Amino acid sequence: MKARLYRVLTAALVLFVMPAAFAESLQINLPRGATEVSNSVYSLHMYVFLVCVVIGVIVFAAMFWSIIRHRKSRGAVPAKFHDNVRVEIAWTVIPFLILIAMAWPATSLLLDMDNTDDSDLTVLITGSQWRWDYEYFDYDVQYRSSMATMRDQVYANLPKGENYLLEVDRPLVIPTNRKVRLLITSDDVIHSWWVPEFAIKKDANPGYINEAWTRVDEPGIYRGQCAELCGRDHAFMPIVVIALEPDDFEEWATNEETRLAEEREEEERLLSMQMTMDELMTLGESVYNAQCAACHQPNGQGVPGVFPALAGEGVSVDSDGLNDHIDIVANGVQGTAMQAYRDQLSMRELAAVITYERNAWQNDTGDEVQAADIHNYIQGDN
Amino acid sequence: MSTVVDTHHEHDDHHDHKPTGIKRWLFTTNHKDIGSLYLLFSFLMFFAGGTMALVIRAELFQPGMQIVDPHFFNQMTTMHGLIMVFGAVMPAFTGLANWMIPMMIGAPDMALPRMNNWSFWILPFAFIIMLSSMLMPGGGPAFGWTFYAPLSTTYSTDSTALFVFAIHIMGISSIMGAINVIVTIMNMRAPGMTYMRMPLFVWTWFITAFLLIAVMPVLAGVVTMVLTDKYFATSFFDAAGGGDPVLFQHLFWFFGHPEVYIMILPSFGIVSAIIPAFARKPLFGYASMVYATAAIAGLSFLVWAHHMFTTGMPVFASLFFMYMTMLIAVPTGVKIFNWVSTMWRGSMTFEPPMLFALAFVILFTIGGFSGIMLAITPVDFQYHDTYFVVAHFHYVLVSGAVFSIMAAAYYWLPKWSGFMPDEGLAKLHFWCSVISVNILFFPMHFVGLAGMPRRIPDYALQFADINAIVSVGAFLFGFSQLIFLAVVVKCMAKKGQAAVAKPWEGAEGLEWDVPSPAPYHTFDTPPKIEAPIR
């Protein structure tokens, strides 16, 4: 008797542990995540799932029992009953009680997730097609985060790295054990900022600001993606968050403030410097491929009817259109997907990318745009 | 059978004359012809939308972009959704309503036969307009079938104008169809066919028709607002002009959630006809089935924002919509318990309609469970917009609604065509479908929980294995439907075993009192119903 019990227990153990082990290597469930909230979400998910499994087993068992036993080929004679008020009341009331048992923990968790009070740090997250901007309220730090996976890894058969489509050039950095408040908005269409391990998914609505918060327990790298269809490159808008110990974070933030300040000074200094055509074209090409190629395509052909071509047509080949060209790139085009780049790129980068667009793909206008030209244009504009 | 049927008219064929050739179909006001047109149109759209699904799954077979451009991929997901919802599932149910409701209530035809013709014949034009928009520069709609603003306004291509026009036409068609169903049921029931004696298919369609009339105008309103935002400088959904993009979602889902019940309530009616027939036992809890259907329809107006938990709505609104959504599990549970109790101590056989009905009960219930999970707001933040949602709504729509339509087709094909569906092929179709549909949709739960967003043409490497399995399942399921096509074509070609008036031993209802195939005109003289038919 005892031996049999052990055998059954071992079998059960194998049955339950095997898929669990399998699940470790091949992720098939929600992550527990890196925060107290994400752990609670995971527990609630498993609780609701198991309740559903139990109900499912009971209902399907009854159904299969009658499919097997109550079949005509076994000589089953149909019963006549077609109502039973007591049973019907029972299976209306019992599910209702089960639902209350689910709603209770869900309500308290939701109220907790909604409470963004008493935060230690605030970051403004702005989505735009197809990248994220991060701006720290408590530090003079602001930057843009774009996917780092190369186009050729997506479109050609270049070998794909371990974090294919989940890697960015500049991750968001936050401290551990601090309540970080996230303000989420968008510059164009609706995006959704989602990091599964924080159990945060919040829509970025243009013109409105949503709030969320997280308190990460362990330092580490956490990855996510945009979760709301936002146009052509929706799949190519990853999120990477690095959580650092509070001291390391302070150090990072201070360094970053200094570095960005120096960059701005350098920018001022460079306004008076002339770049050669080659320098402009090289820098322009890299800026173009990072910022512009997603819509206008690497060959400048655009997508007919969706994104205008730059090669051989439009303002890029209009010899009198230089100011219009600068205006479009710097200020964007109202009512279209073309966004304003004056705050996203440096004067140098703007000059280089405009020079590139006017000379690449046999556009050959010969126009050389310098950072000072952009500066003057924007000053005049103001 | 406790009905008195006047079979006199079945013998004099002289008023059975009808125009021949294309004129018969273009000008028809006959509910059976119009039903057939709806069903064939829906079948065509099912294959069109299915082909698009296979393009999607082919691209997703492995990581990286191999076959299509991301912009075209977005057009495929958009068109697949629109075609399956408005072109395949809804017209199939309208076709079934046209064929069966007059015969089930002992009426000679639908109440408004000329409007019936019109409501079908504008539909092909709507789809020609929508599909041809894919030939425009920049392609067709690429913003998902939910066409969230501002992606569908400021950021869309000019095909949006055609999309809006097509949706308007589809909406008009649905509203006319719904009016016809309501007027028919309220006015043309045979003497003695009281409301509480109507077959459940009639009841569920009656309620569905009210849902359609309530929400299709909202859809028409919201597409019009998209049109004016895009072309006439309004700012309903643009914060810069005082609007709100989230308003779009409230309006869309106020239509969209009742819409999902529009696509499932008639299924409940079909399954409630088939299970008693093959269990040879009356439906358990007829009255509670009617009340549960009405309760689901009523609640469907109070749950729309559960599609919008991540939009940042006030926490108390989230709580309200979570509780209301969970509440829907109660009447839905009642229905499932009733079906299982109908089988309990019955005398079951497993002809093709019953197989599909049983698969419906199990697989729809699985979709219901994931629905409960999705209702729980704090965990919905993790599920929302992932493949978990894709798995959920395909369980209720494919192995739910579509399976019930197939069950209905096998159940009533003898009545429509006069020939029995080939049982061997039909069973092959069933087993291929039920296995492949699970290979296709079950693993989507896992890949969604693991973190794969929906509507993406390319994905991270950890999702590769499961996506490969899903794609294999998709192709198996897609090609299995060719067997269904073969069965239907065989019946239409009048091959196989001829059907008797009542080919299913346990079947109940007035439709089985008329010969197979049903004559062009039935119940010119209404039958008298003296006791409940169940």
TrEMBL record, chain B:
Transmembrane regions listed in the UniProt entry: 37-58, 78-99, 120-140, 160-188, 200-227, 260-278, 290-309, 315-334, 355-376, 388-413, 425-446, 466-489
Annotated keywords: Cell membrane, Copper, Electron transport, Heme, Iron, Membrane, Metal-binding, Respiratory chain, Translocase, Transmembrane, Transmembrane helix, Transport
**What sequence ranges are listed for the domain Cytochrome oxidase subunit I profile?**
25-530
Kindly give the Pfam families that the UniProt entry links to this protein.
COX1 (PF00115)
Pathway(s) per entry: Energy metabolism; oxidative phosphorylation
Q: Which GO terms describe its biological process?
A: electron transport coupled proton transport; oxidative phosphorylation; respiratory electron transport chain
Which compartment or compartments is the protein found in?
Cell membrane; Membrane
UniProt GO cellular component terms:
plasma membrane; respiratory chain complex IV
Entry superkingdom: Bacteria
Task: Please give the InterPro entries that the UniProt record associates with this protein.
Answer: Cyt_c_oxase-like_su1_dom (IPR023616), Cyt_c_oxase-like_su1_sf (IPR036927), Cyt_C_Oxase_1 (IPR000883), Cyt_c_Oxase_su1_BS (IPR023615), Cyt_c_oxase_su1_dom (IPR033944), Cyt_c_oxidase_su1_bac (IPR014241)
Stated EC number for the protein is 7.1.1.9
Which Gene Ontology terms cover its molecular function?
Answer: cytochrome-c oxidase activity; heme binding; metal ion binding
Q: Which CDD domains match?
A: Cyt_c_Oxidase_I
Record has Metal-binding as a keyword: yes
Function of this protein? Cytochrome c oxidase is the component of the respiratory chain that catalyzes the reduction of oxygen to water. Subunits 1-3 form the functional core of the enzyme complex. CO I is the catalytic subunit of the enzyme. Electrons originating in cytochrome c are transferred via the copper A center of subunit 2 and heme A of subunit 1 to the bimetallic center formed by heme A3 and copper B.
Its family? Belongs to the heme-copper respiratory oxidase family.
Annotated protein name in UniProt: Cytochrome c oxidase subunit 1
